[in-house]
Design a protein that fits this description.
This protein has 963 residues and is an alpha/beta fold. The longest helix has 25 residues. It is elongated, with a radius of gyration of 32 Å. The strands form 5 sheets. Strands 3-4-8-10-9-11-12-13-14-15-16 form an 11-stranded mixed β-sheet, with helices on both faces. It contains 30 helices and 24 strands.
Length: 963
C-alpha cells in the first residue's frame, strides 16, 4: 500500500482563499437553471421553499441555507449551539448563505470572508428517483484544517450524486478557526463548538429529513480531511452515534497526528496574549472569555495566523480539545485511547486516501526561499511538519533520505512520501487494525481504497501557487464526487475523467444505500484473517498498460511493513516509552496512561553480603511533565553490577494531572508529590521482602526529582519551602547535592553568555544558598553534606535532544545520568574499559558508598563541610579526565589546578565538583578538589532574591496554601 496521508490541513484553507482570488476564472454554473416551480416542504422546523435546478444531466430540488441553529453571535459566541427556534411562513431556501468567518492562512494575502451567522445546511434531492421509497441520506462534512471551506455549492455541488437518483445529499457549515475551536480547559470556553455544530446539524437531519423524502434510519456520515477526522470523532460520541448508520472517511482520521489534541489551556492564554487582552496572564478564564466575546470577530480570525511556526505549520493550528464531564461536552477522553480500547459503536466504514496526499506541502520543495529556510533548520521544522518528538527527527529522515536529509530539487518525491506515510497512510493502517480487534466485520464491514487516478487538474496548483503536476494530491478525489465550479471546470462527458467519476460515485452510492463498497467483484472482506500483511484495498486508477483512457478499479494488499514499524516506534516508543508511564511530553504525541502508579524493584543476585541491602529510591526529573521509571530511561545495570544496593524507581502523576491546584480543597494539588510519598510508604512496608533494609533508605532524584526530595525533607509543606528551609525547619539527614558544569545548555538555542547566566541563576546559586542555610542548623558530624559538580565530557549529550542538533556544548543538564543508569532509549551503553566506563564505575561507587555508609568521598583527603570550613565555602570534589598519566588508567587524584576562566563563578566555594581540566588527559577519569566561587555572582543573586523592591517573603502570595 502506498503511503497514506491526511491532508485536510492545507487543502481546505488554501483552497478557499485562492478560490476567492480566482473565482471568475473557474465559475461556470450555467447548467444550474430554474427547472420548475419552487419546491416546498413543511418540516418539523418549519415550512421551506427551495429551488429546482436543471442540473448537468438531470434536474434536482435544492434547499439552500436552512438554519439548524440560532446564529452564534453576541452572547452565543463561544457557546454551545442552540437549536433554531423556527420561523413563520416559508423560509426562503433559494440561495446559499454565508460561509463561516474564515481566512486562508496558507496563501499570502488571502481575503477574509463569511459571517458569524453561518449555521446553515443545504438539502438536495433528485427529482427523477429510481424508487418511491424514502431515500438513504448522505451528510457530508467539509475539510479545511478546521479553519476554512464551506458547504457552498461552488465547492460541493450535488450534480454527480443527483444524476444517480438514489440518495439525498446534505451539506453543512460549522464554526471554524478560533471561533469554532477555542477552548479554555474549563467551562469558561468549553470548546469543540464546530463539532457540536455538526452534531446539531445531524439532530436536525434526524428530525426533519423524512419531510424531504429521506430515510432517517439510513444516514451515512462522510467527510474529507478534518471532515473525516470529525466523522471519526462522531463515531466515539455517545450522542452522535445514534444519529447516523455508516461512516465514510476520506483522507483523514481522528488518530492522525495533525489531529492530536494540544494543551488547550495554554493555547487559550497564548491567543489572549497575541490579541493583547487585558491581564491575559493572570485574569480568570471567565474574564478572558468575556473579552473574547467583546472583540470583533475579525480579531479572532486573524489571531489564527499567530499560531503558525513555519509555512503554515502546524497545518491544523486549531483542534478539538478534551472537555470536562460537564453538560453538552463532546469529547471527554483522548480519542486515540477510546478507539484503541474499542469504545465506539460499530458501523460499516469506508476509508480512503489519495496516492500523493502530502503534496499539499509542495510550496516547500518548489519555492526556493522556503526550501532554503527548511534546509537551514531541518531538525527544528520536521518535528512540526510531521508532529513528532524532535528525538525521532534524525531516525525518520535517515529512513526516507539516507544520510542526505536536505531537499535539493531531486528528492521532493521522497519528501512527499514521508509526509504521506506519517500523516495519512500510517493512521489508516492503525485505525483498520484497531477496528478489526473489536468489530463484528460480518455485520459492520470496513472497506479501504486508494484513489490514484491522475489528471491535468489538481489542488497542487493552489498549494504551491504553480501549475505543476505532482500526482494525485490531497483532495484530488473530491472533484470526481462533487462539482467544484469555484475551483475547477466540470468534466466533459465521455472522457476518462467523467468515466472515473461515474465509477467513484456509484461506489459511494452503493455504500450509502447498501453498506457495501465494492467496485471490484473479487474484493475480499477485511477481517483479522485477511489482514496479513494487510486487507485487500481497491485502487481507482487508469489502465495504463493497454488503454490509458480506460478508468479501472483493481485490488491490492501491498503495504510497506518497514514503514509501519518505523511509525509504530515513533508512536509507541518501541524500546522507549513504557505504556505504563505518566509521560505528558509537550509537543510529542501523547503517551502513557492515567493508570500509571507503578514502581520497579531491582536486586542483585550475586550479593557481597547476606545482610539486608541498603535501598536507593530514585525519583526521575522531567519538568514535572515527562519521563518515567521505564528501564529504557533508568536501567539498573550499573548499580546491579556493584551488588551492594537494591534500586527502586517509580512513576508519579505529571503535568496538570499531577500538579493542578485550585488554592482550596476543590483541587488540592501536589498529587505527583503525594504519589512519591505513597511509593515511599510502600517501600517502607514491603522492601524487606525483597531483601532490602527499610531502615537504610536513600532518596535520590535529578532536576525536579531533586526538588521533590528537598520538599520531602520539609514535609508537611504548608508554607513557602524557601522560608521553611531558611529557618531550619527540616529533618536533618546526610545529603549529597550535585550539578553539572554546563547545566543550562538545555537552553542551547541561546548564546553562551546567556547560558552561563541561566546556570548561575537556576543551578549554581541555589546550590550555594542551600548549603549555607543547611550549615546554619545542621549537626554535620551526624548529618554531613557533600557537594559535587559533574564535568566529565564525552561525545554523547542531552544537548542533541534539547537543541535538535548533534553538537557539543559541554556537560549539560542530565549528562551525568547515563553514568549512573543505562538509558538505552536515548543513548548506547558505554563500551567496557573506556574512559566513560571508568568514570561510570567511580561515580556509581561514590553513590553506593553514600547509600550504604552515608559518605560521599571519592578522594580520601576530602574535608567535611562545616561552618568552620565553609569560609568562603566548603571543599568540593572534582571528577575529571587526567591527561598527564596513562589514558587507559582510571585514577583519583587531588589537584587545585583548574581552568579559572571556566569556573571563576565558583571562586570561593569548597564543595564537590565533577569537573574538566584542560591541562589533564581527556581519557583519564579523576577526582580533584577546589574551593573557588565568584562572589560577585552570589551578591548579584542575593540582591535579586532579597531586594526591597523585589518580592517580600512576607508578602501575601498565597503561601498559606502553597502548592
Amino acid at each position: 500500500m502506498k503511503p497514506y496521508f491526511c491532508v485536510l490541513i492545507l487543502c481546505g484553507c488554501s483552497i478557499f482563499a485562492t478560490a476567492q482570488q480566482n473565482f471568475s476564472a473557474h465559475v461556470d454554473d450555467s447548467f444550474r437553471k430554474p427547472f420548475s416551480s419552487a419546491p416546498e416542504v413543511c418540516a418539523a422546523s418549519g415550512c421551506i421553499r427551495g429551488k429546482s435546478e436543471s442540473g448537468r444531466k438531470k434536474p434536482y430540488d435544492a434547499f439552500y441555507g436552512i438554519p439548524y441553529a440560532e446564529p452564534p453571535i453576541g452572547k452565543l459566541r463561544l457557546e454551545n449551539p442552540v437549536p433554531h427556534s423556527g420561523w413563520s411562513g416559508y423560509w426562503d431556501a433559494s440561495y446559499a448563505r454565508d460561509n463561516c468567518y474564515q481566512q486562508n492562512f496558507h496563501v499570502s494575502g488571502a481575503p477574509i470572508s463569511g459571517s458569524e451567522d453561518c449555521l446553515y445546511l443545504n438539502v438536495y434531492r433528485p427529482i427523477a428517483r429510481k424508487s418511491n421509497k424514502k431515500l438513504p441520506v448522505l451528510v457530508y462534512i467539509h475539510g479545511g484544517s478546521y479553519c476554512a471551506y464551506s458547504s457552498d455549492p461552488g465547492y460541493f455541488g450535488p450534480e454527480y450524486f443527483m444524476e444517480n437518483g438514489e440518495v439525498i445529499l446534505v451539506t453543512l457549515n460549522y464554526r471554524l478557526g478560533l471561533i469554532g475551536f477555542l477552548c479554555s480547559g474549563d467551562e469558561a470556553v468549553k470548546g469543540n463548538f464546530g463539532l457540536k455544530d455538526q452534531q446539531m446539524a445531524l439532530k436536525w437531519v434526524s428530525t426533519n429529513i423524512e419531510y424531504f423524502g429521506g430515510d432517517a434510519s439510513s444516514v451515512t456520515l462522510a467527510g474529507q480531511s478534518v471532515g473525516a477526522a470529525s466523522v471519526h470523532l462522531h463515531m466515539m460520541n455517545s450522542v452522535s452515534q445514534a444519529l447516523f448508520h455508516r461512516a465514510m472517511l476520506l483522507s483523514g482520521t481522528a488518530i492522525s497526528s495533525w489531529n492530536y489534541l494540544i494543551d488547550s489551556a495554554s493555547q487559550f492564554r497564548q491567543v489572549a496574549k497575541n490579541m493583547e487582552l487585558r491581564k491575559w496572564e493572570t485574569a480568570s478564564t471567565y474574564d478572558l472569555a468575556y473579552q473574547f466575546k467583546k472583540r470583533a470577530a475579525l480579531d479572532l480570525v486573524l489571531a489564527v495566523s499567530t499560531l503558525f511556526i513555519f509555512a503554515a505549520t502546524p497545518p491544523v493550528p486549531v483542534r478539538p480539545c478534551i472537555e470536562g464531564d460537564w453538560e453538552g461536552a463532546f469529547l471527554t477522553e483522548d480519542p486515540r485511547k477510546v478507539w484503541a480500547e474499542g469504545r465506539f459503536v460499530q458501523k460499516p466504514i469506508g476509508i480512503g486516501v489519495t496516492t500523493d496526499e502530502a503534496t499539499f506541502f509542495s510550496s516547500i520543495p518548489t519555492n526556493r526561499t522556503l526550501r532554503d529556510a527548511y534546509n537551514a533548520n531541518i531538525y527544528g521544522i520536521v518535528p512540526g511538519l510531521l508532529e513528532i518528538h524532535p528525538r525521532y527527527a534524525t531516525k525518520v529522515l535517515d529512513f526516507y533520505f539516507g544520510d542526505k536529509h536536505e531537499l535539493d530539487g531531486t528528492n521532493s518525491k521522497t519528501f512527499y512520501e514521508m509526509g504521506t506515510d506519517r500523516l495519512f497512510y500510517y493512521p489508516v493502517i492503525k485505525l483498520v487494525n484497531q477496528y478489526l480487534s473489536y468489530a463484528n466485520v460480518q455485520k459492520n464491514p470496513i472497506f479501504i481504497y486508494e484513489f490514484s487516478f491522475e489528471t491535468t487538474q489538481s489542488f497542487v496548483k493552489y498549494y504551491s501557487g504553480q501549475d505543476i503536476n505532482l500526482g494525485v494530491s490531497h483532495s484530488d478525489d473530491l472533484f470526481y464526487l462533487f462539482t467544484m465550479t469555484t475551483l475547477f471546470p466540470i468534466f466533459e462527458v465521455d472522457t476518462p475523467e467523467s468515466r472515473m467519476s461515474d465509477i467513484y460515485v456509484r461506489s459511494m452510492v452503493n455504500f450509502i444505500a447498501r453498506g457495501e463498497f465494492k467496485a471490484w467483484r473479487t474484493f475480499r472482506p477485511c477481517t483479522q484473517q485477511t489482514s496479513t500483511p494487510f486487507c485487500d484495498y481497491q485502487i481507482f486508477d487508469r489502465y495504463m498498460e493497454s488503454d490509458p483512457d480506460q478508468a479501472i478499479v483493481s485490488v491490492s494488499n501491498e503495504i510497506n511493513l518497514e514503514m509501519v514499524k518505523l511509525w509504530d516506534e515513533v508512536d509507541y516508543g518501541v524500546n522507549a516509552i513504557s505504556l505504563r508511564n505518566c509521560d505528558d511530553s509537550e509537543n510529542e504525541k501523547l503517551s502513557g496512561s492515567e493508570d500509571c502508579l507503578y514502581l520497579n524493584v531491582y536486586r542483585p543476585i550475586a550479593r557481597k553480603s547476606n545482610k539486608k541491602l541498603p535501598v536507593l529510591v530514585y525519583i526521575h526529573g522531567g519538568s514535572y511533565c515527562s519521563y518515567s521509571s521505564d528501564p529504557g530511561y533508568f536501567g539498573p545495570e550499573y548499580f546491579m553490577d556493584n551488588s551492594e544496593v537494591i534500586l527502586v524507581t517509580l512513576n508519579y502523576r505529571l503535568g496538570l494531572i499531577g500538579f493542578l491546584c485550585s488554592g482550596d480543597e476543590a483541587v488540592k494539588g501536589n498529587f505527583g508529590l503525594k504519589d512519591q510519598q505513597m511509593a515511599l510508604k510502600w517501600v517502607s512496608t514491603n522492601i524487606e521482602y525483597f531483601g532490602g533494609d527499610a531502615s537504610s533508605v536513600t532518596l535520590a532524584g535529578q532536576s525536579v526529582g531533586a526538588s521533590s526530595i528537598n520538599l520531602h525533607m520539609m514535609n508537611p509543606v504548608s508554607q513557602d519551602p524557601r522560608k521553611i528551609w531558611a529557618e531550619g525547619r527540616f529533618v536533618q539527614k546526610p545529603i549529597v547535592i550535585g550539578i553539572t558544569s554546563d547545566e543550562a545548555t538545555y537552553a542551547s538555542f541561546i548564546t553562551t553568555n546567556q547560558t552561563l547566566m541561566i546556570s548561575d541563576r537556576m543551578f549554581h546559586y541555589p546550590t550555594y544558598k542551600f548549603v549555607k542555610q543547611y550549615l546554619n542548623y545542621a549537626n554535620v558530624q551526624k548529618n554531613p553534606i557533600f557537594i559535587y559538580e559533574f564535568s566529565f565530557e564525552t561525545t554523547q549529550s542531552f544537548v542533541k535532544y534539547y537543541s535538535g542538533q548533534d553538537i557539543n556544548l559541554g556537560v549539560s543538564h542530565s549528562d551525568d545520568l547515563f553514568y549512573l543508569f543505562t538509558m538505552t532509549t536515548l543513548f548506547p551503553i558505554f563500551e567496557v574499559d573506556t574512559p566513560e566506563s571508568r568514570m561510570s564505575d567511580i561515580y556509581v561507587r561514590s553513590m553506593v558508598n553514600f547509600i550504604a555508609r552515608g559518605e560521599f568521598k571519592a578522594w580520601r583527603t576530602f574535608r567535611p563541610c562545616t561552618q568552620e570550613t565553609s569560609t568562603p565555602f566548603c571543599d568540593y570534589q572534582v571528577f575529571d579526565r587526567y591527561t598527564e598519566l596513562d589514558p587507559d588508567q582510571a585514577i583519583v587524584s587531588v589537584s587545585n589546578e583548574i581552568n579559572f576562566e571556566m569556573v571563576k563563578f565558583w571562586d570561593k566555594i569548597d564543595y564537590g565538583v565533577i569537573n574538566r581540566s584542560t591541562k589533564l588527559d581527556p581519557n583519564q577519569a579523576i577526582v580533584s578538589i577546589s574551593y573557588q566561587i565568584n562572589m560577585d555572582m552570589v551578591k548579584l543573586w542575593d540582591k535579586v532574591d532579597y531586594a526591597v523592591n523585589a518580592i517580600s517573603m512576607r508578602a501575601s502570595s498565597g503561601a498559606d496554601t502553597y502548592c
